[in-house]
Design a protein that fits this description.
The chain has 259 residues and is of the alpha/beta class. It is 46% helix and 14% strand. The radius of gyration is 18 Å and the shape is globular. It binds nicotinamide-adenine-dinucleotide. The site of nicotinamide-adenine-dinucleotide (NAD) has 28 residues, from helix 1, strand 2 and helix 6.
């Protein structure tokens, strides 16, 4: 299926590894020119090489912290008029809410709520003028079913979800859609770091906890970041202009509800 987005321009945030890289790979394979970012130049270059090897769209790299104003400015300077914006950042650390002070909460809100909102603010009017735009926020299954140790994530991402729900109904008439994709457990560094915390809490080895977590998912495994990228690319396709304001769960059936 031709997704109809060849030569479109995309900003893919936090994309040297994991789900962000999965999205950049799938978009570039469709011929989208991608601007990728992460804080570490070295891993960013490795990701760029991997994307270039596909022979699809061009890659521009920006080494920055996307949760800062300077980082956002740098990415927007490299790609001032994106057709596609994939919002992503590292997730907050797990813990107990009793230990989190105001500063900790503000950092989580900056990373997982406000950065996305400010990047949307900077790009959405141009998309509306050009009558094409696809914005995808990488959030979490925690928005549908909270994860106990990830209270910062549960809270910050729900705030973003609430904001997007309103705006997504305003922009769609101009063929600009805004959706959230909610990952369940995906095989990334982030997930393995969380498993380590869970293993320590439960007094189990990391290997045992990894095995149990994978077996607990109805699919009997973790998701592959490339599977996530393919869904993201479809949501960004020309064909997906009637999908907006949605929270698309991709979790191997982990969420047990009917809807
Ligand atoms: P990951 O740790 O594997 O990759 C994160 C990527 O973001 C890396 O490229 C890293 O360099 C980059 N990054 C992190 N902070 C950044 C910053 N401030 N500025 C620029 N780049 C930054 O993580 P992942 O598993 O791909 O997760 C992506 C998002 O999805 C996170 O917010 C995570 O909490 C969320 N999530 C992941 C899972 C999962 O199972 N993997 C499940 C639910 C939610």
């Amino acid at each position: 299926m031709d997704l109809g987005i060849k030569e479109k321009k995309a900003i893919v945030c936090a994309s040297s590894k994991g789900l962000g890289k999965g999205c950049a790979l799938s978009l570039a394979r469709e011929g989208v020119n991608v601007t990728i970012c992460a804080r570490t130049e070295e891993t960013l270059e490795e990701a760029a090489d991997e994307i270039r090897a596909l022979g699809g769209g061009a890659v521009t790299m920006v080494a920055c912290d996307i949760t800062t104003e300077d980082g956002q400015k740098a990415v927007l300077a490299a790609c001032p008029a994106p057709d596609i914006l994939i919002n992503n950042a590292g997730g907050p650390a797990p813990g107990d809410f009793r230990d989190w002070d105001r500063e900790t909460w503000i950092a989580a809100l900056d990373a997982n709520m406000l950065t996305a909102i400010f990047l949307i603010k900077a790009t959405v009017d141009g998309m509306i003028e050009r009558r094409f735009g696809r914005i995808v926020n990488i959030t979490s299954s925690a928005v549908k079913a909270p994860i106990e140790i990830l209270g910062l994530s549960n809270g910050a991402r729900s705030g973003l979800t609430g904001f997007v729900a309103g705006l997504a109904r305003k922009t769609v008439a101009a063929n600009v859609t805004i959706n959230n994709i909610l990952p369940g457990p995906f095989d990334t560094e982030r997930m393995h770091a969380n498993i380590k915390v869970n293993a320590e809490k439960a007094g189990l080895s990391v290997e045992e906890m990894t095995k149990r977590k994978a077996a607990a998912n109805p699919a009997g495994r973790f998701g592959d970041p490339n599977e996530f990228g393919e869904l993201c690319a479809f949501v960004c396709s020309a064909q997906a202009g009637y999908i907006t304001g949605q929270n698309l769960l991709i979790d191997g059936g982990g969420f047990p509800g009917t809807f």
